[in-house]
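Complex 442.
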Amino acid sequence: MKYFIRTYGCQMNERDSEAIGAALEEAGFTRGSEEDCDLLLFNTCSVREAAERKAKGKIGYIRKLKLKKPSLIIGVTGCMAQRLGEELLRELPHLDFVLGTGQMQRLVPLVQELMKERRRCSETELSAEVLESMGGHDQSPSWHGQIAITRGCNRFCSYCIVPYVRGREISRTKESILTEARALTERGVREILLLGQNVAAYGLNGDVRPPAPDHSPFAELLEELNEIPGLLRIRFTSPYVSYFNPRLISAMKNCEKVCRNVHLPLQSGSARILKAMNRQYTAQSYREKVAEIREAIPGITFSTDVIVGVPGEEDSDFALTRELMNEVGFEQAYIFKYSPRPGARSALLEDSVPEEVNEERNQILLDDLKERIGARLSGLVGSTQEVLLEGVSARNPGRWSGRTSTNFVVHFEPDETCSPGTLRQVKISRSGAVSLFGSLLP
Ligand code: 5AD
Ligand code: SF4
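Predicted structure with iron/sulfur cluster bound:
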């Protein structure tokens, strides 16, 4: 029996797809292709309308595969499955099952049941049982591994559907995360990316109040991961700024394996809009946090998420976002145009920003970013950077690429000693629009 999974959306979904694949392989399935498989899964995203539209379009198109091969089982998992449930079965008559985000542990048994006796079903109860069931990994050798340390979100930002489709925030035990990290490292993984909607809330038992300055179970987790022999780098995404406390900053500073890069979602630079978004910080406190982190860890780089065009965003609010982004000087940013999500609180408000204005704001921030990244990269020409080698570069098969701890991509000519997952020094000779070029030092 062959399976194929098409994944939409965030890294958490990528990670879930890997865990689903591992569970299916353990049950005797092998990986096939979209055109040649017995089980076709769509692991979907709901964060913006476009992601749902794209997945629905693709699932609709796949109907012709089912006509050719009626035994094909088609299932939808992930956030759109959770949000729409039965409605998807009604809308897409060739769909066999819908499995919500809290029911992933049911996937293998459900597929086995359906193979014996065909029926259509939707299971979307948000159960916490899923938490420890998603630890499986693909066994193919790789230098990079990802571990989901929390699931769900308790923040309820007014624009966001995630708390509704992923449920309440729950943290895995430290022991199970460490066991998974050690197992990955023994298989050759050298860099681990920790995932969660708000990783810095790890171990706080869902308490929405940011922890006391000297308390951070997430910091303790980083310290223990830092001790794993053979592991070279630890990354995480994303921490909510209000939880990024002095205890966490000092752990980052003292843990040499923790990368010098933080993805710190800003969303808006206007205090008024942040309040409307139900974000628990102001533009000023965000600024101060970045300064505090920079002072403790010189050279650290920042990336962020920003949404333009939320209901009520005036030109003056947008100007504040633009100003704050330029002031912080993010080395990377993901800029999103607001998408009303039925179910999220802000969807009840009038979508007041016209699409052209939205597009214009988006473009302005992208242009600023392009200019800033170009300048930051050219400032690194002539420096020597420590790079974790990743392998043959996607664009040019004659080159290899890797990343600095600060998350800049570096391309170089390989030598015969190159192997993915090793650290090498690279002398930077030139910069491009989004990456660096250099030569390996012996
Ligand atoms: N519209 C646009 N962007 C959104 N995000 C979350 N919800 C929405 C929405 N309704 C963005 C936020 C978040 C990122 C993952 O997606 O910036 O950090
Ligand atoms: Fe959504 Fe806010 Fe939770 Fe992030 S912190 S997942 S934006 S509700």
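The chain is about 35% helix and 20% strand.
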